[in-house]
Amino acid sequence: MADIKARGIGKLLPIYQNLPQSDYGCFIGREKELAKIHELLSPKSCHFLITIDGIGGIGKSSLALEVAHRYLEDDGTLPGGEHFDAIIWVSAKQEILTANSVIQRQRVLTSLESIYVTISITLEREDITRAQSTERAELVRRALTKQRTLLIIDNLETVKDDEEVLGFLYELPAPTKAIVTSRCRVDVAYSVRLDTLLWEEARQLIVQECAVKKIRLTPDQTFELYQRTGGVPLAIVWCIGLMGLGYSVKTVLYLLKDPTNDIVRFCFEKIREQIRYTLAYKLLILLALFASGTSEKALCYLAGDEHDDMTFEKALADLEKLSLISRISSERLTMLPLTRLYVLSDSSIEPQMIPGLRIKQIDYYLRHIALPEPFPLYLRELVDHVRDERDNILDLMEWCVQHNERERLLDLFLRVQDFLGVFGLLDLRIIWGKYIIEIAEAENRIADLGRLYAVTLGWAALKRGELDQAEVYLQQGLEFIERNSNKGLAYTAKRFQSRLWRLQGRTEESEQMLMWLLARAKEEGFSGLVAGIESDLAYAEMLYNHDLRSAEAYIRSSICGFRDLGDSVRVADRSIIKADILVLQKQFAEAEACLLPNLEIVEKTLGQLEAVAHGYACLAHIRAHQGESVGAAQCCRYAREVYDRIGMQAEIFPIGLPEIGEQ
User: Cα dihedral sign for 252, 393, 326, 25?
Assistant: First the structure.
């Protein structure tokens, strides 16, 4: 039971320990957590009770065991006072997961008495084991005061008299320190919560396990395994164990979709029983309906008004305490892919309940992505919201297709279509747009057809450089718009048409259209449209008429217009055009002073990637003039990369790129 180690001055002292051997090779990841636990276990720390919590399979036991073994192995090199004289391991784990099956452990310690016995045996104190049960608690306390002890209790949630055990732990005598692993967060103790492995850590674990099992995975298979397991270490090890038994990669990845597989049941089955038929479990089901997590606000909407705020908050706190959900931010919640799979497979969920909840989800998004005209993509808060919910909305759109919810799909798409362009998903916008148009035509939604053809498809095709297709879409859109008499939308479509003509070389027609639109927009009070048309005219004067003075006047007026509207992002965007004009005027110092602060603004603003690319193209000219060829080339490359990323081909770099960018 006791190892003998020399400590500093040559005196031989026993290290009492009963640690099991680790079941892993080289311990991977968790360096931050290891460092934190080591800090907490220092004699200088006032914390004496530490919990390592997280879902089943996340690596709690492995981390606790690694901490213990490091103290054991490094004992002779630790500074004075840092070492432990005794390291005692008490496991209440009932099951062990192997690639073949779930195995029941033969020796399970499930009570405070069994903990006392383990302590007394490890410390070689037979007097404690022989003592009456009424005397044992005090004898254990006295024994722990004799040396610096690290007590580790693994799997606290399966201990039958856990309240008595916690009472014992809360009153541990100095200098004892304790680590408890549990799927449930323990109050009072310092909590170290384990999340899933990051990609690089998971990749290293996969490589290590594959080497042991003599398995080869391609990079794509490795990444798919990471995604399917959600970075849960035990799930990764289990999958590779199955491959080692002869299962193909394809079969193992398929098994991960089966909610009855061993890994899913091992991680969640017992803990689910603690909350079934409670509000917490209802909220867990609701959260599982969201493909990528959601906000408390959305969950509350789906849950209905029958629960008060305090009850709702307590239910969420219970789920967090059980490691079934986690917070991305103070307001946003999510769950692991394996958790979601298990929850949605629950046979107690009534099938007829899901469609109603899905429709309520759609209703939530229709209510919370309600936009005034003109469409304010520059509203950071709104763009952030849709970005966070993007995968959920796309998932709901797929559900609508599968369940023939045509009108709801149409309404949902019309609310989010502009954001697909903002996020650089032009291909997706066109694919969905074509499908949605079929629905709008079948439902005879004339007003929507105008927007779908002109804005959804026409604008996207224009940005992709598909000019012939853009012309067809814009013309079709204008026909529907004129039938519906929507002036604001008609002017927007005609503005797109003027851009198309400019790209087709019909510059005179384009300019005439812009002048006509400018007059109409001013007359009818479309202030935002006026400012936008003025920036288009600045382009025309700068690039086609080569009248930089007129271009400067138009862009100055456009900037003032957006400033009056309180649109700081559009002010920054148009200021980059002003920097273009200054470059063409050879005023490079003034151009740099104008460009840099505004480029910083658009870089920090979601949905402004086109302006970012434009800004770096302008900066490339400035750096080339300053003789910084390397910096100019880097700006050129980055500008092209951004445009490639968002799938835009037309109107790239209004003043072109310096020659250095072609090298």
Answer: positive
